[in-house]
Structures are given as structure tokens and as C-alpha cells.
Amino acid sequence: MSYVDSLADLLIDCVEGGASVSFMLPISKETALRFWEQVANGVVRNERILLVAESPEGRLVGTVQLITALPENQPHRADVAKMLVCRAARRQGIAARLMAAIEKEARRAGKSVLVLDTVTGGDAGRLYERAGWQRVGDVPNYALMPDGSLCGTTFFHKQLP
Ligand SMILES: CC(C)(COP(=O)(O)OP(=O)(O)OC[C@H]1O[C@@H](n2cnc3c(N)ncnc32)[C@H](O)[C@@H]1OP(=O)(O)O)[C@@H](O)C(=O)NCCC(=O)NCCS
User: Ligand 1, from 92, 103, 138, 155: best to mutate by most atoms within 8 Å of Cβ?
Assistant: First the structure.
């Protein structure tokens, strides 16, 4: 199975689990494949860094991205995006390790200011606060949950040493 195929299955698992990560239900395999193909093209163009977490058996269980291609007045900044861990592998510290690894990649890429956003009151917010991210604030009714209900979005930033 290719990485794009495994990443598509991971995205579907998260959206079907209720994660607000840009996609609505029902999410088709075709939609998920198209998304990851575009991400892969961005990686090839050096516009983003993609990390994956694999189980000891080699199964893809998590992923996160760093979007490095930003306007020319923000060469020191990057966005962290699409932190996803499959439902079967959660609460084992995989996301925490993915975050530590992507921050290391950010430093290596010369980035000193990172920004991300996540659904207000969700599991991910606790993860980011534990990892030392500063909460900027909430925007009510910013996006839709996969089932169509409105949700708020919380913005975070981290200044890297
Ligand atoms: C948010 C998400 C990435 C977290 O992934 P994860 O790998 O479960 O994260 P962690 O294991 O690092 O931490 C999750 C919890 O497990 C706990 N934990 C970590 N290792 C543990 C262990 N060995 N034993 C017991 N609990 C553990 C953490 O303390 C944390 O506790 P909390 O729920 O009180 O905050 C995951 O739930 C997910 O993919 N959600 C859907 C997609 C999403 O919303 N992504 C964010 C987009 S911005």
C-alpha cells in the first residue's frame, strides 16, 4: 500500500471519528486520495514537510505537516497542520512525539515562529498546551464539524528558541 493510500485511510478514520479537519461527512476515498496527492506535490515542491508515525509492524498510525511556503515577509514562520492519529493508536503519546519531531524539523528549516489552529475544546488543544504552545484566542463559529454543526476554532502559537 502506498503512503498516499495509507494517509487517505487515516484521514477517513479521523473524519469518521468526528474530527474537524477541513472535511465533511461522508468523505470518499477519492476525496481523501486527492487531498494527499496535493500534499505530496507540495512536499516535492519544498512547500511543506510531512512526517508520519508508524507502528512497530510498519502500519501508518499518525501524521503531521509543517507548511513552510509563506509570504516573503514571513520567512521565519511556519504553520503546523493536519495532526492526525488513527483512533486505534490514540493515547499512547504518538501525537506528542510527532509534535516534538515537527518542531525539530521547523528549527532545522530556520523557523522560529509556529502557528496552528484547532477546534475549540477538542482533544488537540490539551496536547498543544502540554507541548508549550500559547493560546491566542477563540473564534466562535469558525468552521463546521463533519456532521455540519458549527464549531469554534482556537489559535495557538509557539516561539522556538
Ligand atoms: C488530537 C490527537 C492528534 C491526539 O493524538 P494522540 O496520539 O492520542 O495524542 P497523545 O497520546 O500525545 O495525547 C492524548 C492523551 O493521551 C494521554 N497519553 C499519552 N500517552 C499515554 C499513555 N502512555 N498512557 C495513557 N495516556 C497517555 C495524554 O496525556 C493525553 O491526555 P489528555 O486526553 O488528557 O489530553 C488525536 O486525538 C486525533 O488525531 N484527533 C483527531 C484529529 C484532530 O483533531 N487533530 C487535530 C487537528 S488540529
Answer: 92
